[in-house]
Amino acid sequence: MMSILFVTLVIVVTGVHGYSAFSIHEASIQDIQKAFSENKLTSRQLVEFYIQEIENLNPLLHAVIEVNPDVLHLADKADNCRDITGILHGIPVLVKDTISTKDKLNTTAGSFALLGSVVPRDAGIVRKLRRAGALILGKASLSEWAHVRSFSIPNGWSARGGQGKNPYVLSGDPCGSSSGSAIAAAANMVAVSLGTETDGSILCPASYNSVVGIKPTVGLTSRAGVVPVSPRQDTIGPICRTVTDAVYILDIIVGFDPPDREATREAARFVPDGGYKQFLRTDGLKGKRLGIVRNPFFNFSKGSNLYHVFEDHIDTLRRGGADIVDNLEIENVNVILNPMQSGELTALVAEFKQSLNVYLKELITSPVRSLADVIAFNEQHPHLEKMDVFDQDALVMAESTSGMGKEQRDAVEKLEKLSRDGFMRMMMENKLDAMVSPDWSASTVLAIGGYPGISVPAGYDNDGTPVGICFAGLRGSEAKLIEIAYSFEQMTMVRKPPSFKPSKPGSGNII
Predict the structure, then answer these.
(1) Which one from 143, 150, 178, 201 is the annotated catalytic residue?
(2) What is the pTM of this model?
(3) Which residue from 19, 90, 91, 250 puts its CA 20 to 30 A from 349's CA?
């Protein structure tokens, strides 16, 4: 395997008809478009490279469930229309296997129960990607049913996709549920990808795989045509290697979508004229008020490696011109972080059953039409679904609910109050532009209020394990978060390609 990985790191595309060599490894969208315009690269060559990388690496990493059988044809069409301009024209995009595509690809949430089902249409965000000229490369692996199958399955595992592996330390946690989207982007199996988040499913894999993940305000991107968990918390966002690439994708996928009318209409007011790329400013930290909640997010011992890493990063933020407001508190934060105490689990399992049943009934054809059918399928096909290894207790818990009754409505009201009196009050009373937290530790705080966050690579353990830093804000604050995240990224430039280390012998320094 190491010889394959070495070739992966040095491979270049050598064009025909006078094209000069161009290295695709670690190339950004801008790099690729420049190579297109200078006749150093074609969309076909780019797609062929990614397909080869998937063939080389996927047996090890399990990041991709399917490759689009028509993607080379789509690349040829893009090459024949090179007079059409647009930042995504001819660029392959990998989407999580919960995002519907009306083509030859399956949409299965990693489960054999949905294999062969036919979706009625492209997901709203896929339509926008196609209109922008992007090519759907394939479906990324994930934690099965967006981690709602079982409370015991490991991050990144699905029956169809297998066990996703962290490309930095193969025995490390890839996190989930958008594991494949992050692994593939990190390992250069694609330049850009899409994930979904209900609670941590973009921010966590982005952090653990040393890539950038944007979790948008709920409703800023359409959820139509996406296998749901909770319409109250679900959101779709980009996972890429750089803040710039993530923002380019965000600009394409935000905005009103009739099938997700209520949420996208409300959030569309947050989208700025001219899009978000105007906020890619190297001086974006200047004048920003950033809050630090030490307990519980920075609760490291003063002699630990992580303590020094994030203290250094807080100093970096200060050097960038930010005003750090330290030692803040979020009211009832320990309740918020406990899904059983907060009511989040009570609400989510009921919302999952209700929304999934609607999704399944709208499919043109499907082996299953309800959550009860999914559970029965798993019981009838235990070998396919590895029922002897992992159970389906989360699915069974969801099926036992009977809609959004009083208990569930009370849980939602409690979540709204916890969010309003906690994160929102802290942000507003301290006039903060963002809260800074290590890793994905604050994801639940953001999830219950529909708030946005951006994870940026922050460092590596001495065994190569990545860690990210998260910038989070109130609903609609993406512009400020992008300024902060981009400025931090440009000041630190922490990210490096994966090392594919086979083991994790122990903890050590972060660099």
Answers:
(1) 201
(2) 0.95
(3) 250
